[in-house]
Design brief:
Helix content: over 70%
Radius of gyration: 23 Å
Structural class: mainly alpha
Shape: elongated
Low-confidence stretches: none
Strand content: under 5%
Number of domains: 1
Order of helices and strands: HHHHHHHHHH
Number of helices: 10
Distance between the termini: 40 Å
Length: 231
């Protein structure tokens, strides 16, 4: 099974966006060329062995990281950095002061320094190392997966949108051709068109900067909130 080859984060945050971008094409093959689909399904194990799916997950991650760099530049830094520097107004003053005091007390030789942004980023890296245990900090892990999934989906958006659009056109042509010869509309074509159109709508109107920012903010709050559970 795929889950035997990928950890939970890689499966949900990296591989899933890659497969979602291909899903309309996979559905098309399954509906139009069922024998080819069965053969392809039988090759999934071989693909795993050859590292094809691993390559796909890394491709999605790479595109997602590029998106992350663009978004951080656009918004003036990572969510945790913005929160601790009061750039977003997401944290109240008392909570922010408590977090910074925790860093000052527990991070060796730490202070904000001449460049507060660099100081905060250094403290957050320390916090990330302290919260690696996914069983103890399950909420952070959950929010990290959600953020990684959305970020990587945004990275895959051009590819996913293009594939979905091509499939929509294909199904529309098929439906028009059958209708024009009065042979009736094939329900398979309607299913293919409906699913491909819904996925295209999702890529175009749901997957976007603000969608990623929402998850990024939630992850940042969960990460910083772990400070209150530490001794």
């Amino acid at each position: 099974m795929i889950s035997d080859w990928f950890d939970k984060y890689s499966l949900q945050a990296r591989l899933a966006p890659a497969l979602l971008s291909l899903f309309p094409a996979i559905l098309l093959i399954a509906l139009v060329f069922p024998q080819l689909y069965e053969t392809a399904a039988g090759l999934v194990g071989l693909a795993l062995v050859c590292g094809v799916l691993t390559l796909a997950s890394h491709f999605a991650r790479t595109r997602g990281k590029k998106v992350e760099q663009r978004l951080n530049t656009k918004w003036g830094g990572k969510p945790t950095t913005r929160f601790l520097l009061d750039d977003d107004g997401e944290l109240d003053d008392q909570t922010r002061s408590r977090y910074l005091a925790h860093f000052s007390k527990n991070v060796p030789d730490w202070n904000l320094g001449e460049d507060p942004k660099l100081g905060v980023e250094s403290a957050v890296r320390w916090l990330l190392e302290k919260t690696r245990d996914t069983s103890t900090y399950s909420l952070i892990f959950k929010e990290n997966i959600s953020y990684g999934f959305r970020r990587n989906c945004l990275g895959m958006k051009p590819i996913g949108s293009l594939i979905s659009a091509i499939c929509v056109v294909y199904w529309a042509v098929q439906i028009y051709g059958h209708f024009s010869v009065l042979s009736g509309i094939n329900s398979t074509h309607l299913i293919g068109l409906g699913v491909s159109a819904l996925i295209l709508f999702w890529w175009v109107f749901v997957v976007g900067d603000e969608w990623v920012k929402e998850a990024g903010n939630a992850y940042a709050k969960a990460l910083l909130g772990s400070i209150d559970t530490m001794g």
